[in-house]
Every structure is written in structure tokens, then in C-alpha cells.
Amino acid sequence: FFVDKCQVQEESAYITGEDAKHLEKVLRLKVGDIIELVVGEELEYLGEITVVEGKSTQVKLLELKQVQRESPLEITLYQGLPKASKMELIIQKAVELGIKRIVPVMNQRSVVQLKTKKDQQKKQERWQKIAYEAAKQSKRIKVPEITLPMEFNRALDNSFEEFQIVAYEDEEKKGIKDLTFLHGNKDQEVSRATIGLWVGPEGGFAEQEIESLKKIGANTVTLGPRILRTETAGLALLTMVQYESGD
Ligand code: SAM
């Protein structure tokens, strides 16, 4: 479970809202049960449940755990907005794999275009909830941020990462292994690197989008000779980058 620092008083933490309900009604946890608790997206504790009241559960903090589960790489996935519920699958799996942030991108060839602010906010809230649940189940310390969906040009303007990698099926030669900056991480050179990963929607990137990405110094890479579905491509790219950089 995750709690804010302000939910901790003296030696006890207080779990409230949906989490308290889930804890009591679904997980059927009781007084005396031991749970794992992350405080302020920073410290992980073992705690003992001392009061279960439906709206609020009191947990006595027992032991601080020294775990390092977060990758030192700060990876953002710029995912071309796919059809139907594929985005939910991508978010859940990317969080399990260690992503720090996901930006849903409305590309020129995205079939799905969320036009109104209301639609965008509704989706973002649902996606953020999925990220929260996935972070809980993977025992992440930090819950990754899922931003509001953005038009491609806006996402590009807002991208701040030191290195940008684009999965591009027309790139024939360069693969992940050719990105020397990733190997440097093994020697602690880029141990805190920020990396942006770009994946197109079902229809792929428009040429103009690839040109714009190249202009900001992005590296296009192939993910191999087979064409992957958009929901496979981002997860494969993320896994390869983590592996290649040793995290
Ligand atoms: N039509 C399929 C679908 O419905 O998902 C395939 C879509 S593929 C064009 C979507 C994106 O995945 C591409 O824009 C690219 O970013 C990435 N991708 C898929 N296979 C790839 C490969 N072999 N190499 C590099 N990128 C790839």
C-alpha cells in the first residue's frame, strides 16, 4: 500500500479511501496481519494492522526495509495512442517493467483522437488508476505518472530527456546494441540518465514525425525483422533498453 507522509503519525500510518475498503472487503485483512507499506514514495516498511474501521485502517510501522526496486534510469514511454483497451495493457505491463512516466501520444495516424478535454481527463484518470494498481502489485516504490494525452508536436516540445530512442520499422541497420550511450550505464557513466522511448500507433509514424524526432537528435532503431503490434513494440523496447543498460 502507498501512503503520503502526512498519513503517518508517530509510529502509525493510516490507510484511507478505496485502499482501506480494498484491504478490508477484498483482501480480507484483519488486525494482526502484516502488510508492506510505502511512505511518501520513498521508504518501504513492514507494518502490523492494529485497527480496521472500513474508512480508515491503522497500521503500526514495525521495520524499515532496505530495498532497491526502482531503476536508476528515468524512462518515459511516448506511446502512440492505440485502439480500444490496448493502452491499459501497455500501462500495466510498462509499470511492471519499471517505466517512470507514460505520455499517450495522438499521432497523425492514430485512429483514436481524444478531442475534448473531458474525454482526455476521463481516460487519464482511468490510466493513472491502472498504473497505481500495477505499481502496488509490482511493489514499486514510486507510482509512475501517466500524463494527459498530447498531440505529437506538443509531446515533442515537452520531451526533456537526454536521450531519445524511436522504434521505427523502416530503420534497417541500427539496433539497441548500437546505442553506445546505453552501455555506458554499466560503468555508471549514465547511471541517472533520462531516456524517452517513442512508439508509433497501429498505422505507424508519419514521415514528418520521424523527421521532427531526428531533428531533436532522436535515434531510430529497429526491433528486428518482424513487425510488432504497437502494444508489443513499446514493451519490447523498454525491456531491451533496461537489459542493455544493465538495470
Ligand atoms: N499494424 C500493427 C498493429 O496493429 O499494431 C503494427 C503496427 S507498427 C507499425 C506500430 C509501431 O510499432 C511502429 O510505429 C514502431 O514504432 C513499432 N514497431 C513495430 N515493429 C517494429 C520493428 N520491427 N522495428 C521497429 N519498430 C517497430
Structure, described:
- There is one protein chain.
- The chain has 247 residues and is of the alpha/beta class.
- Helices cover 32% and strands 27% of the residues.
- The protein contains 7 helices and 13 strands.
- A hairpin with a 3-residue loop joins strand 4 and strand 5 (43-52).
- It starts with a strand and ends with a helix.
- Residues 167-169, 199-200, 202, 204-205, 222-224, 226-230, 233 line the site of S-adenosylmethionine.
- Belongs to the RNA methyltransferase RsmE family.
Structural classification: alpha/beta
- Measured as a percent range, the helix fraction is 25-40%
Q: Report how far the terminal alpha carbons are from each other.
A: 24 Å
Task: Sum up the overall morphology in one term.
Answer: elongated
The whole-number mean of residue pLDDT values reads: 92
Estimated radius of gyration: 20 Å
Strand content range: 25-35%
User: Which regions are unreliable across 5 or more consecutive residues at pLDDT < 50?
Assistant: none
Biggest sheet layout? 7 strands, parallel
Ligand species: S-adenosylmethionine
The arrangement of helices and strands along the chain is: EEEHEEEEHEHEEHEHEHEH
State the total count of DSSP E strands.
13
- Helix count? 7
Summarize this entry quickly.
This protein has 247 residues and is an alpha/beta fold. It has 7 helices and 13 strands.
Q: How would you summarize the topology of this molecule?
A:
Elements lengths: L1 E2 L4 E2 L2 E5 H10 L7 E6 L3 E10 L3 E10 L8 E7 L5 H12 L3 E6 L10 H21 L7 E2 L3 E2 H7 L4 E5 L12 H4 L10 E6 L7 H9 L3 E3 L8 H16 L2
Parallel strand pairs: 1-4, 7-8, 7-12, 8-9, 8-10, 11-12, 11-13
Antiparallel strand pairs: 2-3, 3-6, 4-5, 5-6
Helix pairs in contact: 2-3, 2-7
S-adenosylmethionine binds next to helix 7.
